[in-house]
Amino acid sequence: MPYGQPYGQQPQQPPLAPPQQAPYGPGPQTPYPPHPPQQPGYGYMPPPALRPGIIPLRPLGLGDMLDGTIKLIRSNPKAVLGLSAVAALLASVPLAVGQAFLIDTMGSALNDPESFSSSSGDLTSLYGVAAQYGGSLVSYAVQFVVVTLLTGVLTRILGRAVFGGNITAAEAWRLVKARIPALFGVVGLMAVIMLVPVIVFVLLIVALSLNASSGDLGWLAGLTILFVIGYICYYLFFRTRFAFASAAVVLEGRGPVDAMRRSWSLVSGDFWRVFGILLLTSLLVGLVAGILSVPFTLAGTLFGMFGAGSAATTIVTAILIAIGGTLGAMFTYPFEAGVAGLLYADRRMRSEAFDLVLQTAAIEQQRQGWVHASADELWHPSNSARS
């Protein structure tokens, strides 16, 4: 009790001032920083995302996708690199043979120019060009088949690797072979979408050229340049929109048209991000593939040019070019397929809360101590948290 205050009488309290709201934001009147730094031991840090396999089970960034693709290759190198090497070799050999014949023809012309001034020289030159284009057509046809099959198999391997499980090439093929017709259906529809504008434009140019005078060639060339620029934009747009169609076929069991609709829907709302990641991945793998293939291609070209006219030289040239093409494509195929597959998973996590489904399944699999084959069924859209 304060001195001088009578006993039993409560001291009078001064009236309370109305509370004043502290100013927000930075400024001279702010008594403390608007966002004081966290001190060690204070605050709540969320636990790291569950990562049973090659990626954390949360929405992914570009670094997560690149790292996950590298882990996919390292976790199952026999299946991933072995299948990619076979596919790359089958696609590279016809092209290498055609290039070897063309290089041999060019080398012979440089070594003996007079022999190519006759009609026989013209026939030899025509033969070399035909071999080059013929080899290219065969190579593209083979690539159409083997890359389609490889994409399906690698997507199935990736679907299991997300949970930390490994799968052999034989088992992946057994699971994918029933989806092969649908995969070819997607690739065929994509080919139609990409080729129809080219065919229409070529026919139009031919028709205009037949009725055009020499003074009209300038605007025809300008029209061609505009078409090339427009077609590049056209190609990139549809290539991005249907980037997830193969994954939808293999992992969700959809048909060709339904898979393309599914891909279009997943890309919607995040087109530029998907486009940027796919484009950057293509540039990166193209650079690395060039570094791997250029030395062999250059060596084969020089060897064929200076040793033209010999069958042994042509064979060695074809082998060197094929080795270079195989090394480059062996890296390109799985990396592009891996990034596309992980980007598909990322879009499902962001748009369908699919990460919750993956986390729940991963916890159950960790409790059991192994990854069951039924994990493949989790990719079906009926398991999405927002389905």
UniProtKB/TrEMBL annotation:
InterPro entries according to UniProt: DUF7847
Keyword field contains Hydrolase: no
Residue spans of biased composition, Pro residues class: 12-45
Region (Disordered): 1-45
Keyword line: Membrane, Transmembrane, Transmembrane helix
Membrane-spanning intervals of the chain: 80-103, 137-159, 180-205, 217-237, 271-296, 302-323
Domain DUF7847: 64-328
Pfam families: DUF7847
Keyword Cell membrane: no
Low complexity composition bias: residue spans: 1-11
PANTHER family in the record: EXPRESSED PROTEIN-RELATED, OS08G0107100 PROTEIN-RELATED
Name by which UniProt lists this protein: DUF7847 domain-containing protein
Organism: Nonomuraea zeae
